[in-house]
Design a protein that fits this description.
37 strands, elongated, single chain, about 30% strand, 4-stranded antiparallel beta sheet
């Protein structure tokens, strides 16, 4: 190198020295900070990724804190609910003891009532004072705010919004539409009044009971006997509306005709109907001085009454018609079966006459019309039997409907002279053949179905004239059933169609769609659970009709917990906690506050006969069920939502922290090696630069 102005070797050494010095500075910075990325130029893309991950880590950490705080809030509410549940259990025991009036004095009952009053006050106090921070939890302030029109409110007996996340929409409208009406379990008995004693075991969802029915029990007697045990069985009986007409049975008769004047004797069966075959014989004894006598021979349904006539000393018959009539009336056996009446003065002498049957008997006939519509159907039914006042008219049936009321007209058939010819059997067959009429009523004929319908009167169908008993569960749904087991006697039951024999029937649950989604039906209650709402709606009994709609709109309220990373419905849960006080606890039977002194259903009211102990017990059990259900729901949120969320977030925090660490954290082994390398290069660079700077001095030798 013989040039002085430019020292290329020095420049090259300086550049290398600067580079090694920069590497040394970088390694020392990373080792001192523990971070691989200390400025954007260290790793621009890595910086972007690491900052995103750092934000996510912060969100996850806060979400875990939020979840734990939500857990604490719910645990606080659950603890208070547990205390209320314990108080309700105490009240249940006090009521149970207070109902034991035969063993408790009035003072003891009043002491129990005092404890109940204190327990009710404690429940209200807990509901009012349970707080987390400054927020009350179970006084109703955490319940959802809803809007329901007056018309829709009348269609619902109850609705509950358990969970909802409203989000940016500001409201959630829940429109319920009935697709299938719920039904009660039902069996029908169409046998009418009993003719022999029967013993039944009637069972339902509440239990079973043995029902004793006497041999002459009427339809009303059967109904009342079943209803007397409804509290035990959960089965009620009612008489379906009906109308019936009966033609009386006629007795068989026979006239034994003798030649003499005033000598005929007319015999009439004591019992009307065709159950007995009775024959009368006037027998010539074939002897002199025979006395008048009678013998009665019975073989099954066949009865033969033999009158042995009196004779004189020449063997001639001397018995008159009056003698025979008086003989029959005086004989204990014969008078059980027949009566006898003499012709005219009865002084004529009778003749020997061979066996003569009593004829012309008819059985009683009944045409019973029954309302076979579903229980609770609105409107009345009337049946009209019309004389066409014309010759050769055909039998016909027509139905006229006005609103819910129907009139069934039976146009009776006539012969060529205009006389009515339609029998009970004819009318029953015509009603069954009419599609319109058979959907409304059923016709049953007992006894003489050949009775002519001229005696039939038009009538409205009423329960007082009904002959069909419907046994029905007190509740709706698949949990409700009616079971009839005949222990002795005869008691045939059928399904609602009146023909299918059955001993057991089960109700069906309501079918409902809510916002187009199929809800879970149980009895009259429909429950919908989706990602953003958990709600139930219970239809009123009168609205249990297909295509009925009701809308409940959630507009706010509830307790919203941000437990996820997303600030949306995906990361939030909204829990509704209704007021848990004595005014809200209870059910359709009544509310819990009514058990207090002076509220109408206290132990004192029960002892006075002004309240029913069973109703009081049901109120408490409904209250206990509501509290335990709420505790279970809150516990499910803790266990299945919050706890699992914390566990999931914890795993996510570990993995994301690991990913960010790989991007931003210093690998000390690697950076120590880099530091050593940079130090060696830096020392070498200084030495080389020193040598390069000495090279220009060699030029001086050329000048010397």
């Amino acid at each position: 190198m013989t040039r002085l102005n430019t020292n290329i070797a020095s420049l090259r050494g300086l550049r290398s020295l600067n580079k090694s010095t920069q590497a040394l500075d970088t390694a020392m910075t990373r080792l001192s900070t523990g971070l691989k990325i200390n400025s954007g130029r260290d790793n621009p893309s890595g910086l972007i990724a690491s900052e995103g991950l750092r934000t996510q880590i912060s969100v996850i950490e806060q979400s875990i804190k939020n979840s734990n705080r939500a857990n604490n809030v719910i645990a606080t509410a659950d603890s208070a609910l547990g205390e209320i549940g314990g108080l309700l259990t105490q009240v249940r025991g006090l009521v149970q003891e207070g109902l034991n009036t035969g063993a408790l004095s009035q003072d003891e009952i009043e002491a129990n009532q005092l404890q109940i009053d204190n327990a009710l006050s404690a429940i209200n106090r807990i509901a009012s004072n349970t707080k987390f921070g400054s927020d009350k939890l179970i006084d109703g302030s955490k319940a959802f705010v809803t809007n329901v029109s007056t018309a829709d409110a009348a269609k619902l007996s109850d609705f509950r919004i358990n969970e909802a996340v409203i989000g940016s929409s500001g409201s959630i409208a829940l429109k319920a539409t009935v697709t299938q009406a719920a039904s009660k379990a039902s069996l029908r008995y169409a046998g009418g009044a009993l003719t022999s004693a029967s013993t039944l075991e009637v069972g339902g969802s509440k239990g079973s009971e043995v029902v004793l029915l006497g041999g002459t029990s009427s339809v009303a007697n059967i109904r009342d006997a079943i209803n007397n045990s409804s509290d035990t069985t959960g089965v009620t009986a009612s008489v379906l509306a009906g109308a019936s007409v009966t033609t009386a049975a006629t007795a068989a008769t026979a006239t034994l005709d003798s030649t003499n004047a005033d000598s005929d004797v007319t015999f009439t069966a004591v019992t009307a109907g065709t159950a007995q075959n009775i024959s009368i014989v006037f027998a010539d004894p074939g002897a002199n001085d025979a006395a008048l006598g009678v013998t009665t021979t019975v073989s099954g349904s066949d009865v033969t009454i033999t009158v042995s006539l009196a004779t004189d000393n020449a063997g001639a018959i001397t018995s008159t018609a009056d003698d025979v009539a008086a003989l029959i009336a005086a004989d204990a056996d014969a008078s059980l079966y027949v009566t006898a009446a003499a012709e005219g003065a009865g002084t004529g002498v009778v003749e020997a006459i061979a066996s003569t049957d009593l004829t012309g008997a008819t059985d009683a006939g009944t045409l019973a019309i029954s309302d076979i519509r579903a229980s609770g159907s609105a409107g009345t039914i009337s049946i009209v039997y019309a004389d066409p006042s014309a010759n050769d008219a055909a039998l016909g049936v027509s139905v006229a409907t006005s609103g819910n009321n129907s009139v069934i007209t039976v146009n009776l058939a006539t012969d060529s002279s205009g006389n009515i010819t339609s029998t009970y059997d004819d009318i029953a067959a015509a009603l069954a053949a009419s599609e319109d009429a058979s959907a409304l009523v059923g016709a049953a004929v007992t006894g003489d179905g050949d009775a002519v319908a001229s005696a039939v009167a038009s009538a409205d169908l009423t329960s007082a004239n009904g002959t069909i008993i419907e046994l029905q569960s007190t509740s709706y749904g698949s949990d409700a059933f009616v079971n009839v087991n005949v222990l002795s006697g005869t008691f045939g039951t059928t399904l609602a169609d009146g023909t299918t024999e059955a001993r057991r029937n089960t109700g069906t649950d309501i079918g409902v769609t809510i916002n187009g989604q199929e809800a879970i039906g149980r009895g009259l209650r429909a429950t919908l659970r989706t990602g953003n709402v958990d709600a139930s709606m219970t239809l009123a009994e009168g609205s249990n009709v297909v295509d009925t709609t009701a809308t409940v709109t959630i507009v706010g309220g509830g307790a919203v917990f941000q437990i996820g990373q997303e600030v949306s419905a995906a990361g939030q849960i909204g829990i509704g906690i209704e007021a848990i006080n004595t005014a809200r606890l209870g059910g359709v039977t009544g509310k819990l506050y009514e058990l207090g002194s002076g509220a109408g259903k206290s132990l004192i009211d029960i002892t006075r006969g002004e309240a029913n102990g069973g109703d009081v017990v049901r109120i408490i059990e409904e209250a206990i069920n509501k509290v335990s259900t709420l505790r279970g729901r809150l516990g499910a949120v803790q266990k299945n939502v919050i706890d699992t969320n914390v566990a999931t977030l914890g795993v996510a925090l570990e993995n994301i922290s690991e990913a960010r660490s790989q991007i931003v954290d210093t690998d000390f082994a690697e950076e120590t090696a880099n530091l050593t390398k940079a130090q060696v290069l830096n020392q070498a660079g200084i030495a080389v630069l020193s040598i390069a700077n000495q090279n220009p001095q060699q030029v001086l030798q050329l000048l010397g």
